[in-house]
Amino acid sequence: DAKTTQPPSMDCAEGRAANLPCNHSTISGNEYVYWYRQIHSQGPQYIIHGLKNNETNEMASLIITEDRKSSTLILPHATLRDTAVYYCIVIGAAGNKLTFGGGTRVLVKP
Amino acid sequence: DTAVSQTPKYLVTQMGNDKSIKCEQNLGHDTMYWYKQDSKKFLKIMFSYNNKELIINETVPNRFSPKSPDKAHLNLHINSLELGDSAVYFCASTPRGQGAIQYFGAGTRLSVL
């Protein structure tokens, strides 16, 4: 599975959009981009995933660049409860071995 | 109505002891997993069972033995605990055909003294 690079931390104002970048320059054609988050003292939580088209669900939007080498997770209106570590992972279509690295620690401030 | 539940939430024990962690999911999923998250928050898979059958074993020491009595339960037994086993252990499950969309329990924080 391709390696991903994320900034270690970022702050966001409550009510504003949070844009979380992820680089995955070695992604291959059949690999998907998945995003999870982990709120303090809880288990990881699936957010969204995509292959090449932009995706949106009730939690977030995922924008994948045309060359698929990077993506951005957008939390449209961040709340205090969105404070968490966000993980971007790349995994093949049949993959199920999740491996989380450093992630981005997002702090939503009032 | 918790989807994936683990017990206990905290486990403090002495080196050399044997302990078990239990996991149950009420989502009707066929596949369950055990993950280990170390102190640096790196999460790695340990085992996976599909409908009571072991399908992933990631070079985990054989002191760790998973057991799946039915597809809704996946327990983890650890023999001869070592200091390096201290970590947070997460159970997860996934619907059929959705391998990377996994539902995690709240974790079991194991401290070996």
General description of the model:
The complex is a heterodimer of chains A (110) and B (113). Chain A is globular, with a radius of gyration of 13 Å. Chain A has 110 residues and is mainly beta. A 5-stranded mixed beta sheet of chain A has the order 1-9-8-3-4, with no helix packed on it. Chain A has a 4-stranded antiparallel beta sheet with strand order 2-7-6-5, with no helix packed on it. Chain A has no helices and 9 strands. In chain A, 0% of the residues lie in helices and 47% in strands. Chain B is mainly β and 113 residues long. Helices cover 0% and strands 56% of the residues of chain B. In chain B, strands 2, 4, 5, 6, 9, 10 and 11 form a 7-stranded mixed beta sheet that branches. In chain B, strands 1-3-8-7 form a 4-stranded antiparallel beta sheet, with no helix packed on it. In chain B, strand 7 and strand 8 (73-78) form a beta hairpin. Chain B is globular. Chain A binds chain B through residues 32, 34, 38, 41-46, 49, 85, 89, 91, 94-103, and chain B through 4, 31, 33, 35, 37, 41-45, 48, 56, 58, 90, 92, 94, 99-107.
User: Sheet with the most strands of chain B?
Assistant: 7 strands, mixed
Strand content of chain A: over 45%
Q: Quick one: overall form of chain A?
A: globular
User: How much strand content do the residues of chain B show?
Assistant: over 45%
Tell how many strands the DSSP assignment of chain A holds: 9
Gyration radius of chain B, to the nearest Å? 13 Å
Task: Please estimate the helix content of chain A.
Answer: under 10%
Structural class of chain A: mainly beta
Specify the structural class of chain B: mainly beta
Order of helices and strands of chain A: EEEEEEEEE
Count of individual helical segments of chain A? 0
Task: Provide keyphrases for this structure.
heterodimer; A: about 110 residues; mainly beta; 5-stranded mixed beta sheet; 4-stranded antiparallel beta sheet; globular; B: about 110 residues; 7-stranded mixed beta sheet; 11 strands
